[in-house]
Amino acid sequence: METIEELKVHYRWSKKDEENLRKVAWLGESYADEFIERFYNYLENFRDTSLYLPDEETRKRHKDKVKRWFAELFLSKYDAQYLRRLYRIGEVHLRIGLPPHYVQASMNFVRDFIAEKLTEHMGCSPERDEIIASINKALDLNLDVMVNSFREEELKVYLSSGKLQRVLIENIRRVSWFFDIFIITALSGVGLFLILWIGYEFFLVATGELPLERGGLGILGSVLILYAISELLSEEIKHIRGGAISIKVFVGVALAALIRKVLIISLSPEKFQELITLSITTLALGVVFWLIYKVEGRR
C-alpha cells in the first residue's frame, strides 16, 4: 500500500489544505450530534444495517467512533499514524463483512453534509469553494485507504492459502460460472417452449379442437407459468451480478403452477376433492409468499 507521502502527492495535498480544514474544525464539534443523528437516519436506507449494528451497545460504540473520525477529519496531521488508523477501520469493515459499497455511499453523505453546513455559514463564496475542495481531497484520501485495505486483506488471505487451495478456489469459480450459464440457458429454453405452447393452445382454440372455456383457462395458466419463469430468470441474472436471490421467486413459481392446475381442474366437477386439496395448498403457499414478501420488504 502507498505511504501517506505518496498519497499526498497523488491527491496534490498541501499545507494549505490542512490549514483550510483547521479553519472549519468547529464543524466537528458544533455539528457532531446532528451529524451522527442524520448519518444513522441515512444508514436505515441500507437493508442490512441491522446485521452490522445489531444492538444498542454496538450502535453506541459505533457512534463514538464515527464522531471521533469526523472530528479528526479536520484536526488530524494526516501522517503515518493517521494512515494506520484509517487502515484499521478498513480491516474492521472487512472482518464484519461490510460491503465496500456501503463505505463509498456513506462517504458521499458526509461530503453533502459538510458542504451544506459550510454553505449555511459562508454562503456561495470563493473561500467556501476552496475549503470544500480541500475537504473533498481529505474524504477521497480516507475512502481510498479504507477501501484498499479491504482488497489488500482479501489478497493476503488468498495468497496465504496453499497452491492446491488456490487452484481449488479458481476451479470452483469456473464450475459455478458454468452452472449459472446452464441455468440461464435452461430457463430461457423453458420460456421459449412455453411461448410455443401458448401459441399452440391459441391454435387449438381457434380451430375448435379445444373448447373456448378450457382453452382460455389453459392459456391463462401457461401465461402465469411464463411470468414466473421470467421472474426466476431475472433473479438468476441479478445473482450473477452479485445480488442475492429472493426465495419469494421460487415460491411464486410453485404458486403459479398450482393456480394453473386449479384453473384446469375447476372445469371437472368429478374432481371436486382434488380441487379442494389443491385450493388449500395454494392458499398455504400464498400465505408463505406474503410472509416472505413482508420480511424481505422490511430488510
TrEMBL record:
Residue ranges of every copy of the Globin-sensor domain listed in the record: 3-154
Any one Pfam family match given in the protein's UniProt record, by short name: PsiE
Segments crossing the lipid bilayer: 175-200, 215-233, 245-263, 275-293
InterPro entries tied to this protein: Globin-like_sf (IPR009050), Globin-sensor_dom (IPR044398), Globin/Proto (IPR012292), P_starv_induced_PsiE-like (IPR020948)
GO cellular component: plasma membrane
Range of residues in the leader sequence: none
Coiled coil: none
GO molecular function, one term: oxygen binding
Protein location: Cell membrane
Superkingdom of this protein's organism: Bacteria
Membrane topology, as annotated: Multi-pass membrane protein
Alphabetic keyword roster: Cell membrane, Membrane, Transmembrane, Transmembrane helix
Name of the protein described by the UniProt record: Phosphate-starvation-inducible protein E
